[in-house]
Amino acid sequence: MNDSIYLPKPFDDKNPEHAKALMHEHPLALLVSTNSSGEPLVSHLPLKCEFHGENEDHWVLMGHFARINPQVEALQAKPKALAIFSGPHAYMSPSVYPDLVRVPTWNYLTLHAQGEVVFLDEPQTKDQLLKQLIADHEASYAAQWRALPQDYQQKMLSAIVGFKMKVDHRQLKMKLNQHRPEAHQAMFEQYSQGGESMQSLARWMQRLGMVASDGS
After folding, report:
1. Looking at the DSSP assignment, which residues form a beta bridge with residue 49?
2. Which of 71, 92, 105, 124 is 20 to 30 A (C-alpha) from 133?
3. Which candidate, 113, 87, 89, places its Cα nearest to that of 21?
4. What is the CATH number for 68?
5. Are strands 160-175 and 48-52 parallel, antiparallel or unpaired?
């Protein structure tokens, strides 16, 4: 499959653990595909990734659509899709540099995963998929779901279509100014004092070893 994102070498992260962390922390993805006319279709979906194989190198994304979503019919005809996970992002001031001949930029983390969608429409399979998502996001709700009237559960399950997508190609872009080490400490300090997204980027700078774990 073709690359789906502009990815300069300094921002190309090959560490699968970083990709897993990004999906876990930001599970709401954009699932992009095209219709028969080549026009783009996009759905915002919470996705769960399962890891298979001896080295967990076979990734399968799982999720569900509303049955009436027109993207379902389009994917039945053209099953290739792109899932985009967006992580924290923030403006970067040129004031982090020791000199003034600089311009501002925007830092961000994103994961692109491509594959073919296979639909799962058996009630038991969809029920299991929902329980996996519930376990990830609100485990205490599982008992309430099981206690709902059977006809109501069946009605809810019939309104959705589950799917899986084997990931054939993925790209993780970590744009954190890695190629400008002279700015790292000042950038880290600015992000550490900012809002939630900035603070998340500061923690990622520590994960990537751009600054010491204690921020020094």
Report:
1. 61
2. 71
3. 87
4. 2.30.110.10
5. unpaired
For the question of whether the overall pTM of this predicted structure is more than 0.85, the answer is yes
Is 3 inside a domain boundary?
A: no
Q: How many CB atoms lie within 10 A of CB 140?
A: 7
Q: Which two tokens stand for residue 179?
A: 């190629």
Angle, helix 150-158 to helix 123-137, in steps of 10 degrees: 90
Rg (CA), the chain: 20
Q: Are 25 and 17 in contact (CB under 8 A)?
A: no
Rounded CA-CA distance 117/165 in Å is 5
Q: How far apart are CA 73 and CA 202, in angstroms?
A: 42
- For residue 180, the enclosing domain spans 9-96+104-207
The tens-digit pLDDT sequence of the chain (216 residues) is: 678 899 999 999 999 999 999 999 999 999 999 999 999 999 999 999 999 888 788 999 999 999 999 999 999 999 999 999 999 999 999 999 999 899 999 999 999 999 999 999 999 999 999 889 999 999 999 889 889 999 999 999 999 999 999 999 999 999 999 999 999 999 999 999 999 999 999 999 999 999 987 655
> What sign does the CA torsion over 168, 70, 111, 2 have?
positive
